[in-house]
Amino acid sequence: MQKQRKWDAKKIISTIILFFCSIAFLLPFIWMLSTSLKIEADVFKYPIEWIPSRWNAASNYQEVWFGDHPFYLYYWNSIKVAVCTTLISVVVSSLAAYGFSKVRFPAGAWLFIIVLATYMVPPQASLVPQFILYRYLGLFDTHIGLILLGSFSVLGTFMLRQFFIGIHNDFIDAAKIDGAGHWRIFWRIALPIVRPAVATYAILRFIWTWNDYQNPLIFLRTDALYTIQLAMQKFTTINGSFYTLIMAAAVSAILPLLIVFILGQKHVIDGIALGGVKG
Amino acid sequence: MASNSVSTTEELHQSKKTKKSKIEKSENLVGLLFVSPMLLGISVIVLFPIVATFILAFADWKFVTGIDQLQWIGFDNFVALASDEKFIKSVINNAIFIFTVPITMMCALFLAIIIDKNVYLKSYFKVAFFMPYISSVVAIAVVWQVLFHPSQGPINQVLMTLGIENPPTWISDPNFALISLMIIHIWISIGFSLIVYIAGLQSIPKELYEAADIDGANSWYKFRNITFPLISPTSFFLLITGIIASFKVFDLIAVLTEGGPLNSTTMLVWHLYERAFLDLDVGYASAIAVVLFLFVFSITIIQWIGQKKWVNY
């Protein structure tokens, strides 16, 4: 059975064909990147100049980052919101996941069903009362409010709970006999074991928060608090037909995420695959 | 599970009743402490608001006027919905948009089969097709807006060189706007389905294909009789999550069309947003939210029933 690995001609051909398909699939990204490097007059030149003949990258990106609507400010806002949301969400979800899987208490089963049931609620269905509540509590138009909105994730709790269940109860019982309480078991034994799952969830949560447009749109008003997605939309409205600038902004909005994704690629893809196959 | 193990402990330790109840009490407290941040959070951010939505759907209230102006009007909001053209258009558009789901799934399954078995550079392809899914919808929408530019956009320039004299004006043409959004949505979602399908394919036992090879089966036969039936639980999962996700599409509409031209791209979530946050009509928007909730809720119920019936192994 085990033959030396040989190059398979059929496989090479389908790789080449699929490679061209993937390039076609990614053309919008390539177009975005190449346009962000051009001068305005060359944007709609036809046939399309994939490699710009006249470069204007420095001034385009300078205008986006340090112009009238400086992206560094919105970047900072987005980083703040995404990092805080991810941290709080990971802590809250893993605590709840441990409680729902490894602490045997009668109310747990019921409470878990309630938590799961809220997952069926489409987020937009509770938007209006959320908005009214936020006005009332003074959380409207604050970063704290926005962070709290993303911090209580049923999906995260469910996902991490699946992994905690996988830890053998003997581990926990042995620690208990040694006199460790649940708090110590959680920090010292359970959490380190499920660390890859926590990493997967953290990356996904970061990406989702970074990309979120709807919540910032509804819950933020002050320009200085805008996240990168809101800024992107505002920038597009203001700069109307300066397509090079808009594309430079789009590249800037996508790039950090792409880096996070490529660094954590395996985690993200495995996490999604796992969630999908288990249902 | 939890209640079971508690009852066995009970039988075993009946004699040490006092000690047992003390331990159980502390387990209860510890358990509650662990889950309380989550419970508190979703109570305030999800549970309370969704209950409020159901109550406010029976009210006539403009948010700016203060709570004393609130009037209870029974089912009037829902009656009004039935004759609201924009609402009906939204429901129809949501229904049409569901077609993106099977199309996405077919493309993804096709790609998944090729990537799973027949190519080198597997992880490159996974990342490449997954890129639109992780990119910000706002940035993507803006790029497509320019690509779809009616006269000078690259897409129409290519179509014109191919000899099509009057290519559609895409997002500014009422007949093509929804289709344009659907194309972008499919492009975004393929990566997700692809990853899930590849994982699903890898869980199919290889022996089945080897046995079919020995019988001299061709690829189509293997697809029809092995791959397709054995991947059906994954397909079912993707179908349901895809339909639910199609009800939540908001960013694309908000950035590209704002429901226009001529309401051709309005959908439930967008209509809700307009009524709630542009017209500040809390009662009416809540009624739309209730309808949205009921749609998603019934799809979830179908999933629960279907999952039991449609598992092929």
From TrEMBL, chain A:
<feature type="transmembrane region" description="Helical">
    <location>
        <begin position="185"/>
        <end position="208"/>
    </location>
</feature>
<keyword id="KW-0472">Membrane</keyword>
<feature type="transmembrane region" description="Helical">
    <location>
        <begin position="105"/>
        <end position="122"/>
    </location>
</feature>
<feature type="transmembrane region" description="Helical">
    <location>
        <begin position="12"/>
        <end position="33"/>
    </location>
</feature>
<comment type="similarity">
    <text>Belongs to the binding-protein-dependent transport system permease family.</text>
</comment>
<dbReference type="InterPro" id="IPR035906">
    <property type="entry name" value="MetI-like_sf"/>
</dbReference>
<keyword id="KW-0812">Transmembrane</keyword>
<dbReference type="GO" id="GO:0055085">
    <property type="term" value="P:transmembrane transport"/>
</dbReference>
<feature type="transmembrane region" description="Helical">
    <location>
        <begin position="74"/>
        <end position="98"/>
    </location>
</feature>
<feature type="transmembrane region" description="Helical">
    <location>
        <begin position="142"/>
        <end position="164"/>
    </location>
</feature>
<feature type="transmembrane region" description="Helical">
    <location>
        <begin position="242"/>
        <end position="263"/>
    </location>
</feature>
<keyword id="KW-0813">Transport</keyword>
<feature type="domain" description="ABC transmembrane type-1">
    <location>
        <begin position="75"/>
        <end position="264"/>
    </location>
</feature>
<dbReference type="InterPro" id="IPR000515">
    <property type="entry name" value="MetI-like"/>
</dbReference>
<keyword id="KW-1133">Transmembrane helix</keyword>
<keyword id="KW-1003">Cell membrane</keyword>
<protein>
    <submittedName>
        <fullName>ABC transporter permease subunit</fullName>
    </submittedName>
</protein>
<dbReference type="Pfam" id="PF00528">
    <property type="entry name" value="BPD_transp_1"/>
</dbReference>
<dbReference type="GO" id="GO:0005886">
    <property type="term" value="C:plasma membrane"/>
</dbReference>
